[in-house]
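re the bet — no i am not wrong, look at it urself. input seq straight from the record:
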Amino acid sequence: MTTIDLTSTSFNSAVEDNDILFVDFWAAWCGPCRAFAPTFQAASEAHPDIVFGKVDTEAEQELSAAAGITSIPTLMVFRDQILVFSQPGALAPPQLDQVIAAVKGLDMDEVRKSIAETNAQGS
């Protein structure tokens, strides 16, 4: 599967409609972003069961601000509509493969339980 371009109008539905969504926040002028792009594209082709999206931070400044993006590239991963990974910096292929494996291996019942416990402690 190829990557999809995400915008402020399509971002929320992409998070809601996909079990796993990897999002690359990038800009054309960013050297590390350009270096990470082939790695991200190769992963999207190797994992057709995952949706890979890209957000152009220049074109989507409001979306980038809402997502709290302060450095690019930034990779965010959503699983079952929950943000489970967010990290700035370009990843090498083996690092991205590790993130993919970790996200696929998450016990989402445990993740939801942990979130509920954290929220209960904060109340």
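see?? Residues 31-46 form the longest helix (16 residues). told u. also The domain at 4-122 is CATH 3.40.30.10 (Glutaredoxin). so pay up
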